[in-house]
Structure formats: structure tokens, C-alpha cells
Amino acid sequence: MKAELSRCPWASKHPLLTLYHDQEWGVPLHDDNKLFELLVLEGAQAGLSWLSVLKKRDSYRQAFQGFDPAKVANFGPKNIARLMDNPGLIRNRRKLESTVANAGAFLKIQKEHGSFNKFIWQFVDGKPLQNAWQSMEQIPAQSDHSQAMSKELKQQGFKFVGPTICYAFMQAAGMINDHLTSCFRYPRLHAKP
User: Fold this and answer.
1) Which fold has domain 12-189?
2) Are 48 and 54 in contact (CB under 8 A)?
3) What would the pLDDT profile of 62-94 be if each residue is shown by its tens digit?
4) Marked catalytic residue, from 20, 25, 133, 167
5) What residue ranges do the domains of the chain occupy?
6) Is 10 part of the annotated catalytic residue set?
7) Catalytic pick among 25, 37, 50, 133
């Protein structure tokens, strides 16, 4: 009989969460389009559960043309109206409009910094921060790093990028290893000095 893997407690609440936790969450992400997707989805999650977003992720990918920021930046009022009618999305007008605005800001950062990846990873000096939490209660909702990221993204024209959203983005993108030390993923994602 195979022993059950020890996971972060939230990962065992639904099969989609388990799969996401085991394969994606906390893995250092350096692909610009995937970083854009993650930033959009983290903003869409505001006030909701991550499971709600994961269930709609494929619909988001289709509706936002594979999260191609150049295409999304050109969305106009007719596109927003179509998105508002799409039951596969979280139909919050402000969140949907922010995705279009964020695509334009994203493209500006790419142009100025060479890539969004280069820009965003500067907030952790290019390497994942390593925490050693033993319980979920120890994990903060935000940090000095996420506050600095939020402030800069807002100055660049981004919306739905508060420090709590930025912290969740940093966790998901592998900029911070917030797997519990008891989780089987923790040592696999623990960057050696």
C-alpha cells in the first residue's frame, strides 16, 4: 500500500487544487505569457476562492486568446460586453476591464525592461525567497516584497494588484517558497544557497 504524500492542507480540499499544488504552485515561473496569465487570474480571484478560478481557467485562456497581452491590450467595449456574457468567466466588469488595462501596462514593461520576467523577479533579487513555515497560520497575507511590487505595478498602470494579490502571485509563481516544511513539495522547491 502506497503511503499518502504530505501536502499543504489547502491542497487536499479538491482534486483540481491537489493537481495545481503538486505540479504548479511554487514552481519558479519565468515565461512572460504565463506570468501575465497568473497575474490576471490572481486579480480575478480577489474576494473568491482559488478553486473558483481554477475551474474557469480554461475559459479564461480561450476568452483572452491564450493570454497574449498584445491581443488583449486591443480589446474594446464590444470585447468587454462579450466577456460579461461569458458564463465561463468571473463576470465582474472592473476585473475584466482591468485585464485589458493590465495587458497594456504589461507590454510597456516588456518594452522598457526587455521582459516582464526580468522586471518582476527583481522584487526577490532574481531568486526564490525561502520560508520555513510549519503551519498555515504562520503564512502572511502580504510582505514587504509584495507591498513594493504592488506599489510599482500600480505606478505602471496595473489594476487589481494590491499587496495581498501580489503575495499570492509571488507564491504561485515560485518567487516565494511557502509550502509548509512538512509538505513533500517543500524540499523539491527549496533553492539551495
Assistant:
1) Endonuclease III; domain 1 (1.10.340)
2) no
3) 999 999 999 999 999 999 999 999 999 999 999
4) 20
5) 12-189
6) no
7) 50
Catalytic residue among 37, 42, 133, 186: 42
pLDDT, tens only, 12-45: 999 999 999 999 999 999 999 999 999 999 999 9
* Global confidence as pTM: 0.94
Q: What is the pLDDT of residue 192?
A: 54
Q: In the annotation, is 50 catalytic?
A: yes
Q: Residue 193 pLDDT > 70, yes or no?
A: no
